[in-house]
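TICKET: design request
STATUS: open
ATTACHED STRUCTURE:
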């Protein structure tokens, strides 16, 4: 079957390229920042994989203004970059962008106790609390990572 994907907050479009390389027929990579969109376009031109790059479309746009529906949405560190005041809008927009039977995969990061951002602190219960009211249910949650796989800032770093 023909499969479409969306990558909001795409940055350099590394994830969009990965999805194109792994079977998605059309991948829309969206970022609000013109510099990110230019970097994504450059990455597509220089990645050395014209077949995959041809499946990716970069849009410099506001996620909340997007139209259409997608079979798969990969939200990797996009929610944590958004101001907490728009979290409910984020959830509603994700639900509206998913095609019937589609999947939203989120990387809940950073899981920590901190004030301010971005990135803003996230947790699995927080994300569930946003998505369940709009009809999205977790099919699988991988939140019991071994300590070796936790991301912890260095002694001098602050998130």
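STATUS: resolved
RESOLUTION: sequence designed for all positions
ATTACHED SEQUENCE:
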């Amino acid at each position: 079957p023909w499969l479409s994907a969306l990558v909001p907050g795409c940055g350099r479009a590394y994830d969009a390229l990965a999805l194109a390389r792994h079977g998605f027929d059309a991948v829309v990579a969206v970022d609000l920042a013109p510099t990110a969109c230019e970097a994504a376009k450059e990455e597509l031109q220089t990645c050395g994989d014209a077949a995959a790059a041809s499946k990716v479309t970069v849009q410099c746009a506001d996620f909340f203004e997007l139209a259409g529906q997608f079979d798969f949405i990969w939200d990797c560190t996009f929610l944590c970059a958004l101001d907490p005041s728009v979290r409910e809008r984020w959830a509603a927009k994700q639900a509206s962008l998913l095609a019937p039977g589609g999947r939203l995969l989120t990387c809940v990061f950073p899981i920590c106790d901190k004030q301010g951002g971005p990135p803003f602190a996230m947790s699995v219960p927080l994300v569930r609390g946003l998505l369940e009211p709009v009809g999205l249910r977790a099919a699988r949650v991988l939140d019991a990572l071994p300590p070796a796989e936790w991301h912890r800032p260095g002694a001098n770093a602050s998130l």
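CLOSING REMARK: Residues 34-46 form the longest helix (13 residues). Residues 3 and 103 are 11 Å apart (CA to CA).
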